[in-house]
Each structure stands twice: as C-alpha cells, then as structure tokens.
Amino acid sequence: MSTAPSTSPAPKTLGGLSRLRHAWINSMRGLRLAYQGERAFRQETALAVVLVPLAFWLGRSWVEVALLAGCVWLLMIVELLNSAVEAAIDRIGPERHELSGRAKDVASAAVWMALMMCVGVWGAALWARFAA
Fold first, then answer.
1. pTM (2 d.p.)
2. Which of 10, 18, 26, 121 is the most buried (most CB within 10 A)?
3. 23 in Cβ contact with 8 (< 8 Å)
C-alpha cells in the first residue's frame, strides 16, 4: 500500500459535484487498497459475489432479501473499518503497546460479530426455506 499523502484538494475547499467526485475517487482508492492488501476483504468480496445474488433467490420478500444481502454488505463494511484501524495503529509504530493491541482486538471482534450475524441470518433463512 502506498504511504504517499493524497494529492487531492482539501475537502473543505470543494463544493457540490466536485466534492462528490473527489469523495468517490477516494472511496474507490480505498476499496482498491483494501482488496489488494487485505486477504480477508478479498475472501469476503468473493463471498458477496455469490451470496448477494443468491439473496434475491432465497429471500421470499424484500425484507428477507434486504436482511440477507445487508448482512453481507455489513460484514464487508466492518472489515473495511477493521483494516482502517489496523493501518492507523501500524502507522504509529511497530512496537507493541497495550492500547494498540486492544484497538486491533476490538476491531477484530467487530468483524467476528458481523460474521456471526451473517451466519445466523443466512442459517435461519436456509432453515426456513428448506427444513419446513
């Protein structure tokens, strides 16, 4: 991952569509960096490519589809935030510190909880669809 500072203008100096364009460019850069640098994000992306379309088949209503697809998207969002926490902590320095470890562990726990929620929602939907 690149450690060079961003060359884009300060967001506060931009307005309207220009601000939205720069925000979109920065977001796409963040997704690309996460995909290139985080194995877990690549795995979750592959999972999403399968599960999000499957949600439209498995869900019996728009609410079920939203829950099935939404928990997959939420897992990816939490993984992005976990990656951001890890990058910020690693930027501070390589030495071990209790607070750095705590921050990384809590962010990792958030990913685990999102994953368990995803497993639970998909498991319940599969059970309702095929076990009944």
1. 0.84
2. 121
3. no
